[in-house]
Amino acid sequence: MDNKTNIVLIGPMGSGKTSIGRSLASKLNRDFFDSDFEIASKAGVDINHIFDVEGEEGFRNRETQKLKKLCKMSNIVIATGGGIVLRKENRELLSDSFVIYLSSNIKELVKRVASSKTRPLLQRSTDKEKTITDLLKKREHLYKKTADLIIENNENNYHITVNKIIQSISK
Ligand code: S3P
Q1: What CATH number is given to the structural domain containing 106?
Q2: 168 located within any domain
Q3: Which of 119, 125, 140 to mutate to test ligand 1, by most ligand atoms within 8 A of the CB atom?
Q4: pLDDT by residue (tens digit) across 130-156?
Q5: Is 9 within 8 Å of 78 (Cβ atoms)?
């Protein structure tokens, strides 16, 4: 991990960033932050509401502001939103952190987000599998180029993935 002290999880919706990040932070005895949660609690409304009122652009501005603040901290674990890699500015901010791309197959991603009501990009979709496949096609190269480490998370039990991460970073 060299001199990078923060660990940041990136990946598509349903890749397990929040559950894995929280568990990883607890095992490493670090503080955990979920950028979507932080954005929503600062705004006092949920992410769907921010998209409705300010559009995706408004949400992305808030996301960049939040990422800037989080990246100023040290020794923390951060779970990001699936679109964090879209802006070059965000990718540059992430270059000071140890970034882990949680990669999962489409079938698993779709299964995990099937009943989600909190994701505006899926709310209006009549075909979640197609939406996720299209988003991944556009974003996967960005996840890969931003990551220091790629970990597959196709497990039902996220503790297995957390242990894989801990093994990889302590090598
Ligand atoms: C988004 C993913 C969401 C959230 C917002 C936009 C995206 O986060 O940031 O709905 O663009 O993929 P999760 O990846 O935690 O679902």
Answers
A1: 3.40.50.300
A2: no
A3: 119
A4: 999 999 999 999 999 999 999 999 877
A5: yes
Pair of tokens at residue 167: 């093994």
Q: Would you state the pLDDT for residue 3?
A: 83
The reported pLDDT for the residue numbered 24 is 98
Within-domain flag for 91: yes
* Tokens encoding 14: 């349903």
Q: Is residue 61 part of a domain?
A: yes
Res 134: pLDDT: 97
Query: Given ligand 1 and candidates 36, 104, 116, 117, which is best to mutate, with the most ligand atoms within 8 Å of its CB?
Result: 36
Give the residue numbers spanning the domain of 35.
7-162
Asked whether residue 103 is domain-assigned, the answer is yes
Tally the domains of the chain: 1
How far is the centre of ligand 1, averaged over its atoms, from the C-alpha of 35 (Å)? Answer: 10
Q: What is the pLDDT of residue 157?
A: 87
Ranges in the chain, pLDDT < 70:
none
